[in-house]
Amino acid sequence: MSKICIVSHFAYSAFTNSASGHIGGVEIQTSRMAKWLAKQGHEVKLIIWGIEGESGQHKKIDGVDIIQMCHADDGLPVLRFFYPRWTSLVHALREANADIYYHNCAEYVTGQIAHWCKRNYKKFIYSVASDLDCVMGLPQFNTLREKYLYIYGLKSSDLVIAQTDKQKIMLMNNYGLDAKIIPMPCPGPDDLQYSKIQAANRKTILWVGRISEEKRLEWFLDIAEALPDFDFVVLGKPNDMDSVYYLDLCDNASRLSNVNMVGAVKYTEMSEYYASSSLLCCTSVFEGFPNTFLEAWSYGVPVLSTVDPDNVITQNGLGYEASTKEEFVEYINLLMKDESLWEKCSEQSRQYYLEHHQVDGVMSLFEKTFVDIENEKN
What is the SS3 string spanning the chain? Predict the structure, then answer.
């Protein structure tokens, strides 16, 4: 069995099924991976930011050793980049003493982990979380230092994992890297649970995600205003509850009687929302391969999206790609009023999930990849 260390600074809330803290697709996937690998008998360490009220304490949850760094806001501005953030990361990496280190999502931390692994003859695997991780220019970074460290980590990895063919091509064209494609896993209802979900109970149109400007929740609210006969539900919260952007959205939503801004929901409570929804809408400017798509398809919920990773939605009849708010309105009307068409998309969505994204099948691919990399000679 392997010794595996996963670095995911914000993963604790997702790992412990809390509705507080930052929870995104990366945190859900890394938490899921850590628990699955531990269940298979691997020695798994998870490195996170320090937990509020604790300082450097270690704990073991679901077979995974949790190693805390400093707290995210410790230290002085500018200086804390080096101390205590980088120094506590190095301490945590050393303490993990793993054979393989894994990091998901483009950050300057990618380079820090890669540098430490190279100096200590450890294997490092980086996994792409979004198409934006693969573009030239890396507009998500604010400083040249962050861009340099990420690119260094990307190119110093023993293996880069991509989610889609598009990401693989972008990495080759932009960085000369030959990535390995592994789809993301997602737990879903089993056949018995799924059989109890009746189409007649599906009455809402759903939006799920972190509320930030690139996700364009305002589109969803405009679509809801154009379709007053349907109910719209929003699950998620912003990183900053006091941001002008979020407060304006809440103000706009409060004027719409058919919109319910639910807020953050524990991951284990998401099933009731998918089971009662007719459609999932994604209005993002960019994405990778969103967990929300997989979750929706596992419940037979078609997806309407501005982003269609590798054209899987269009090619497999899992919903529709929509590039404008007017197209969203058109497709919602089409699917909500044509029961036979909705049922066909629903069945195809469920089948696609079963064939490509069940947890054990996909996690086995990750596990084999980790073992193969570990066995390679330096």
Answer: CCEEEEECCCCHHHHCCCCCCCCCHHHHHHHHHHHHHHHCCCEEEEEECCCCCCCCCCEEECCEEEEECCCCCCCCCCHHHHHHHHHHHHHHHHHHCCCEEEEECCCHHHHHHHHHHHHCCCEEEEECCCHHHHCCCCCCCCCHHHHHHHHHHHHHCCEEEECCHHHHHHHHHHHCCCCEECCCCCCCCCHHHHHCCCHHHCCEEEEECCCCHHHCHHHHHHHHHHCCCCEEEEECCCCCCCCHHHHHHHHHHHCCCCEEEEECCCHHHCHHHHHCEEEEEECCCCCCCCHHHHHHHHCCCCEEECCCHHHHHHHHCCEEECCCHHHHHHHHHHHHHCHHHHHHHHHHHHHHHHHHCCHHHHHHHHHHHHHHHHHCCC
pLDDT in tens, the chain (378 residues): 899 999 999 999 888 877 666 677 788 899 999 999 999 999 999 999 998 777 666 789 999 999 999 998 999 998 999 999 999 999 999 999 999 999 998 999 999 999 999 999 999 999 999 899 999 999 889 899 999 999 999 999 999 999 999 999 999 999 999 999 999 999 988 887 777 665 556 679 999 998 999 999 999 999 999 999 999 999 998 988 889 999 999 999 999 999 999 998 887 788 889 998 999 999 999 888 898 999 999 999 999 999 999 999 999 999 999 999 999 999 999 999 998 999 999 999 999 999 999 999 999 999 999 999 988 855
Residues 6+ apart with CB under 8 A from 34: 6, 11, 15, 44, 46, 64
Residue 161 φ/ψ, nearest 5 degrees: -105, 130
Strand partners, 104: 127
Domains detected in the chain:
3-185+358-375 (3.40.50.2000), 191-356 (3.40.50.2000)
In sign, the C-alpha dihedral spanning 237, 353, 230, 222 is: positive
What are the structure tokens assigned to 102, written together? 């894994």
